[in-house]
Amino acid sequence: MKKTLITSALPYSNGYLHLGHLAGAYLPADIFARYARLSGKEVLYVCGSDEHGVAITISAEKENKTPKEIIDKYHFANYEAFQKFGMSFDIYSRTSIPEHHQIAKEFFVDFLKKGFLVEREEEQFYDEKVKMFLPDRYVEGICPNCGFDKARGDQCDNCGAYYNQIELKNPKSIVSGDTPIVKKTTHWYLKLQEFQVFLENYIDSHNSDWKENVLQQSKSWLKQGLTERAITRDLTWGVKIDDIDGIDKEKAIGKVLYVWFDAVLGYISATKVWAKNNLGNENFFADWWQNENTDYFAFIGKDNIVFHTLIFPAMLHGKGGYILPKNVPANEFLNLEGQKFSKSRNWSIDLQDYFNEFKDETAADVLRYALLMNLPETRDADFTWKDFQTRNNSELAAIFGNFVNRSTQFIAKNFDAKIPQVSNEILSQWEKVISYFDANFSDNIENAQPPAHFVSLLNNNDINLITSLWQGVEKSKKLLERFKIREAYLEIMNIVRSSNKYFNDEAPWKTIKSSPDEAAKTLFVCSQLIYSLSILFAPAIPNAAKKLQSSLNLTPAIGNATNAKQNENFWDKAKLPNLKSGSNIQIQGVLFPFIEDKVIEAQIAKLGKNENTAEQDNVNAKLISIDDFKKVKLTTAKVIEATKVEKSDKLLKLQIEISGKQRQLIAGIAKYYTPEQMVNKTIIVVENLQPAKLFGNMSEGMLLAAKTPDGKLSLLTVEENDFPTGADVS
Fold this sequence. Notes:
CATH class of the largest domain: Mainly Alpha
Helix content: 40-55%
Strand order of the largest sheet: 18-17-16-19-22
Strand content: 15-25%
CATH superfamily of the largest domain: Isoleucyl-tRNA Synthetase, Domain 1
Oligomer: single chain
Largest sheet: 5 strands, antiparallel
Structural class: alpha+beta
Number of helices: 25
């Protein structure tokens, strides 16, 4: 029996979850996990908090707390928010636990023995006052490329340049404020280049089934060529290595595993904890991670793609015996009201704040549905409060809730709140129609149509609705298994629309008087559809699904965590009549109340300060005079040669020509453009920028490029590629 292993990227325990996080790695994974369980599959859904790294220690210093206090604060707050949101993790673990430290060290030791690690001595800033080496985020200075005075560690947020930390001008430790010295330290590097061919073959094997954004980002890294990557850093918080045999103890003091290496292993350590707690032996984790009959799906946001398509698979392959991700369905970014999420500008919606504002039983479902219908599956998407209101009022309430309410109210009034009686022949014909569709139209869903002799007791309206149900179940199943989750629920909502049309066309308010048996058959069909929809909607809106099934006196089947035990296939059975005549069916209250305008207006008002004032303040603060602009000499240049900068996966060395003279530029564009793509481009450069040395290479100017907040980059080039160089740009 195939197993389905699902992971969501481990969220950092240094802040609260916001809606952008949910739309990336969590809601899609939870919907898929619930769907898989309802389809009868054996599922294990793993997640937890990422609790190591510089981000944690910086948060601790800002809040005047210890790292342990920080991770405890955010781990439990985020886990509680996840529970309210309806996440169905089988386990939500932590990377600070001993079990995680143990397995992270096991991987390190194994790689050390196999020769995958290399020890290197390098120079790094050291703060003599606090007696510590400074990771990149712990030092600020003047950018060697553009002169920005708040540049950090190895990258300038102003111009985007990458450089070696010690090339910063006027560096300052953010810990003590003192000027650090340069001191030698030792680190261990993973020889990632040794996995180049293996990873190329692995990525190529998924050309037909992975998302294009995942493939392209992975192939871009591979095209640049993989290089050694530091696996340790100087820090007091993390998985320490000074007790590991086979390395110099003195050199290992003060070293921890780099968080990029240990975080992904949190999936495995969490599975070990789950196996110990539920099966009595942690070694049963191997049934999931070392079993060829396991399909592993890693849900992430696009900022985590290469860690799950290249680095983690390299680690699993290097260790040996582990399965690799079958798919890495990464989503793009979610924006908020047209802007990037920003807590510093109060332009964010934290999950815990949402539940403080929306406390009724439908709150989680409405948010899940609104996010679902705006999932950034192929491109960045936008969450707006008005759309949130529309999704609830015009879809959940007016379409789904309307069908449920009008059906159950009619049954309560005319059939004593019990599912009406129909003949066994009607049940038999419904089942025969579904069986015929399954046998003949599984690859031709749109054209499903039963032979005339199957429908002697079912009228055209009945057949149309049963056909719509079968098509919706089959289409949504295929779409969900291709991770087109939003499209899947558009198909399921079409079933609801067909159900409302069926109720209208059958007009039971008329037939209850003229033909009671016909009215009974109509409401019997409607009752079956209510149950079927409760199954199909369960992955998306589990609370409403549970309410519907409970109203039918059924044990809820909503795809909750099941300790990986196999369930029956509720999804396929949703095509059939499942409820017995005479069973109670009664819903208390409306399924989804309308959300008033004033509620939405209040939420919009909370975002930042007055938007127009804030925007104008921002514009005024950045205005420059024409004289300021004239100081910058922009000119056209031709790229005549391009190569990668050694020991950097971010920099290209460009030889350019301006008016017959050659000069050299170092540009942080290697993740977006290959050397071959750059040759012969006519670009725009800042000609009069003070030269700077980057990674030991002199850069005599800076090229211009446009970069979006989510990381997309495009060079500014001249439309006519044979345009002369040295031309003024104004």
